[in-house]
Description:
Bound molecules: FE2/S2 (inorganic) cluster
Order of helices and strands: EEEEEEEEEE
Shape: globular
Amino acid sequence: MEKICMMEEIPEREARSFETSEGDNIFITQRDGAFFAYQNLCPHLQVELEFLENQFLDRDQQFIECSTHGALFDVETGLCISGPCQGDSLEKVEIKVHSDGGIYLQD
Ligand code: FES
């Protein structure tokens, strides 16, 4: 099982991007103590979501936001709730937090 990072590297309502050993560009964010991971790819034009490093959330840190056209995505589900790809979803990456405090990709 591939370890991505430690829990403390991703504070509540922040996000960080990572590259997996298979070359996937993903990001992880924390909300209410739970961690959510998605492929860093906007379903609108298949581009990366962020312009600035690790800036995946909107100004209020409420939703995931695409920097290109401002689509907003629900943190827990990845569903686009506003913007040109409304109704589409980010591609979820299954992760698991282990007792060592590490966040791992689920096989
Ligand atoms: S590319 Fe993300 S909203 Fe257009």
